[in-house]
Amino acid sequence: xxxxxxxxxxxxxxxxxxxxxxxxxxxxxxxxxxxxxxxxxxxxxxxxxxxxxxxxxxxxxxxxxxxxxxxxxxxxxxxxxxxxxxxxxxxxxxxxxxxxxxxxxxxxxxxxxxxxxxxxxxxxxxxxxxxxxxxxxxxxxxxxxxxxxxxxxxxxxxxxxxxxxxxxxxxxxxxxxxxxxxxxxxxxxxxxxxxxxxxxxxxxxxxxxxxxxxxxxxxxxxxxxxxxxxxxxxxxxxxxxxxxxxxx
Length: 248
Hints:
27% of the residues lie in helices and 24% in strands. With 248 residues, it is α/β, with parallel strands linked by helices.
C-alpha cells in the first residue's frame, strides 16, 4: 500500500488503522495458517503414540472441522492448542484430545442418531456431524445455544438439530438414540438419558463432583446398563433438573 501526502495535517486514525491492518494483520490470528495448525494438532495431540487416538475416521474429521470458528475471535490464535478454552457464560470448549477421545469411544456409525447434552460452542456436534446421520444437541444456556445454532448453520452442518433446554431431560420426542454423549458432569447418570437410549446403544458421560469426576462408557444390553470408568476428567457441572432430582 502506497501512502502519498495529501496536504492535510496528517493521516486520520482510521487510515493509520487501515495501514496497520494491511501490513501487520488485525490480530495474532491473522498470522496463523489454520489448516497447518489443525494438521499439527491431529499429528501431535491426537495420533501421537502417547495419546493413542487411532480411528482413521475420527482423525480425519478432527482434521477437517475448523475449531477456530467455534471459539471467540480474541482466542482464535489459540484454537488448536492442547487446552480447553472459555466460550463465555462460564462454559468452555473442550480440549481437542477430549473431543477426539470421547468420539472414538462412542464408536459413531454413519446411520446413527446421536443425542448430545451440552452443545456449548457447537464444536463437538460439528465433529459428530461428519460421522453420523443426525445429531440432536441441547444446551441449557440460551445465548450459547443460539450462537452455536448460528455457527453450525453458517458452516454448513445441516444434519445438526439444536435447541435450548434442560439436557437432563433428554429429547424425548426424538428418542430413541443410537448413542448419547454428555459434555457436562452430573453427580449421577440421568435416568431419562438411559431411557432414551436404544437397546444396544452407547453412552459416554462424565460423572461426579468437581475435582473427582470420571468418564464412563455405558452400553445398554437387555434393558440394563453396563458401565465402566475409562478416564479421570474435569468438566463443568450439569445444571437444571439434575439439581432437584432425588437420588435413588
